[in-house]
Amino acid sequence: MSAIEHVPPVAAAAPDAQPWLHDLVTVVAAPGLALSGPDGQLGGGADGVYRGDRRVLSRLRVTVDGREPAPVGGQATGTATARFVAVPRHLGPAGPDPTVFLERDRAVTPAGLRETVTLVSRADRPVRCVLAVELAADLADIAAVKAGADGTERSPAAVRPGEVRWVAPDGTAVAVRVTAPEPAGVGAAGPTGARPTLSWPVRLAPGASWRVTLEVVATGGPGPVTAPPTRVPWSAPEVAAGDHRLAALVGRGVAELGGLLAADPLDRADHVLTAGAPWFLTLFGRDSLWAARMALPLGTGLAAGTLRTLARRQGTRTDPATAEEPGKILHEVREGGRTYFGTVDATPLWVSLLHDAWRWGMPESEVAALAPNLEAALGWLADRAADGDGVVRYHDRTGRGLANQGWKDSHDSVQFADGRLAAAPIALCEVQGYAYAAARQGADLLDALGRPGGAAWREWAAALAARFRDRFWVEDPAGRYPAIALDGTGRRVDTVTSNIGHLLGTGLLDEAETAAVVRRLAAPDMDCGVGLRTMSARSAGFNPLSYHGGSVWSHDTAVVLGGLAATGTGPARDAAAGLVRGLLAAGSAFDWRLPELYGGETAAPG
């Protein structure tokens, strides 16, 4: 979730008006993105062509003789490509079978989009029609689009037969260029005449086809990320498994990473993964770190680039407005250099990624170059614990940032089992696990690099573990488990959540505690058959379609799977197998392109 919502003035929208995304065709080549319905038409809701945080084209609708063709089907054909087929049913001989088809082949680029529109005739006689393309650009900030606000369509700065161009007040510009043939007509449509309409008279002989290509190119200042070099910084995995679905899921997942891959504009040699399309196609501390960590078996290049990109922006001062603090790793960067540091977990996760990349073979010279950033990050951890009665807490004191600053950063994600919301300052259970692991891993790095402090950090970790064991554990009729958090008064927030799964593999839990967590995660109120619920179905606040209160997050399930695998006990292996089966079932439903989150009731057996 984003806390940076500074947007141009737009019409007000209800807080529940966020556009639906589940039925959209999404194609992405960071920082470029296109969203449309399966009919391929752009215009309404979140539809549009985006470059970074800006919707550069809000309307691209194709008509034939003033009518919208009847859609037949449309889907992504790759990470950055899609194909749509429709039928202008009024063309050709009368009868039940269509004889003229309209095809749209879409390819997103980091700067915009290239789309070829083709009319194909199977009619037995010549066909005549007028094909038109209606365009509009609101140049809206993505935060305004996400809020459901209706952007004002801007009048174009230039309209010529071969090009239509818009320019925003900040200098961001977008041009729609037409390759041959040039349109015969250029008109205007829409309530204010702000929609240029390009038209072509078309004559198709039997069996003939006609096509035109549109190119959308956005220009402007450098954004938070830029287009990556062409070579991806990882190797292609080979998956051998008895269940063919596993290879399909992994293969599609790795391919999709290519669409999210970007580069640091401060050093384009450093790759980084953006957090996700459409709302978070930018640098996000936590998300970029987790993704790089999971990709380590494919190489250390992505991890090294991610570490350096975030280290360049590491906090150096105290600024309550942005939540910046010395040594802290950022939460997100937005257009115009707007940086927000409201995250409690990115800093320990940065330390853990540095450690794991080192263990996977990141060159020691590159690791050593980040030693000052490592020491600063560990120093931030010590300061947070000192301010938080010995545990790591967060608190937005401005009232304008994120109220919750763990990975579940929605306003209602930290609640008691009876549905009451927890009050800040809040200490999340998994953050204590991250901090414990970071302290011990940081100590190993300091020792290996010949720098002081290793022994002190191991003592710090041991003291944190003792405090966690004393303060976080609660019990109900099903047994003991860690609370999701401590609230500002030190009360244990007793909802059963997936957060406890993130403790596995950190070293914070002993054998009996690990077994208790595994039992909770494997229960049907948490494992719903298609992944791990974010909140127990027995909790008062449970909602299977909420953002963090019962939905299933792909990455959350994967993080817990990693912890279960590291645990290695029989019950942990069984729980992991159940979650893998769930992800495979979900993957098959989503054509192996797992979304950020999904939800529903418990899956039927089989």
Automatic annotation (TrEMBL):
Mannosylglycerate hydrolase MGH1-like glycoside hydrolase domain: residues covered: 333-585
Domain of life of the source: Bacteria
Biological process terms in GO annotation: carbohydrate metabolic process
Pfam families according to UniProt: GDE_N_bis (PF14742), MGH1-like_GH (PF22422)
Positions of the Putative glycogen debranching enzyme N-terminal domain: 33-214
Name of the protein: Glycogen debranching enzyme (Alpha-1,6-glucosidase)
Species per Swiss-Prot/TrEMBL record: uncultured Mycobacteriales bacterium
Origin organism lineage: Bacteria, Bacillati, Actinomycetota, Actinomycetes, Mycobacteriales
